[in-house]
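Following up on my earlier message about adenosine-5'-triphosphate. Here are the inputs again, as you asked, copied directly from the submission form:
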Amino acid sequence: MSEPFVQIRNLVKTFNTPAGPLNVLRGIDLNINRGDFIALVGPSGSGKTTFLNMVTGIDAPTDGAIQVDSTDVVKTPQHQLTRWRGRNIGIVFQFFQLLPTLTVFQNVKMPMDFCNVYEPKERKDRAMTLLDRLGIADQAYKTPDMLSGGQQQRVAIARALANDPPMIIGDEPTGNLDRMSAANVFSIFHEMRDQGRTVLVVTHDRELVHDVPQIMILTDGLIEATTFEAAAKRRSQELQSVKRKTQERRAIKTESPERDAAQSSQHLS
Ligand SMILES: Nc1ncnc2c1ncn2[C@@H]1O[C@H](COP(=O)(O)OP(=O)(O)OP(=O)(O)O)[C@@H](O)[C@H]1O
Ligand SMILES: [Mg+2]
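Thanks, got it. Here's what our run produced:
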């Protein structure tokens, strides 16, 4: 069998904060095979974005090893990593992160210019083909602010695919989209996986997670495989706990004026 596409060993990330060290990732071991489609779930603040930043080389781990294909992500110098990322990982963010002063077409062409992957004369055709595949070729000469959220995310996906990367990573890519646009984005991810790409997506969306072949959960600094049912149960427990805390806070607020009044009358007497 061929080697896993992504190999992660003892991945540790500790942030130094004013309150002391914060151990976010505590020794993750994980293999991801070529062609896997993984949804990564986990409570807010559990370290999902931190984890993705390690895999993409956007941030460096405190300890551990990360290899993506034949690249040692931890040991490669930062200036080489930027170009490596541009060629090998298409990243789709929650807030699209398109360049506002460039047109849609220029946004999609930019990674090709930056990484010099295609011949300059091919780039224009390729950008238009990608926009066409995502159903937004007619928006090519607008700036991103003139597009709906769903259209902007499709531009971001076209940009992520510009250099034909073997891996796609999404960090809550549907967090700002309506149901229809969100389903659309996930159906594009499924298509990418069918074409042999490796897809790793952080999402809180229960409905969309349902159809993803593998679900992993990040809790207490570690990642483990889970099932849709277990992830859904955990998520509803988290929601219940948030609701309970909100109710408790409300109760304290409504109680406190009386308590304040009682205290001040005691004070006056
Ligand atoms: N640069 C940093 N310095 C200090 N602490 C950080 C830094 N980046 C993230 N953290 C902390 O690390 C923890 C994990 O953050 P992270 O953004 O990875 O969580 P997340 O799982 O992506 O959450 P969400 O679902 O809300 O996006 C949080 O407690 C966060 O405050
Ligand atoms: Mg996050």
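One observation from looking it over: The first strand starts at residue 6 and ends at 17. Hope that helps, and feel free to reply on this thread.
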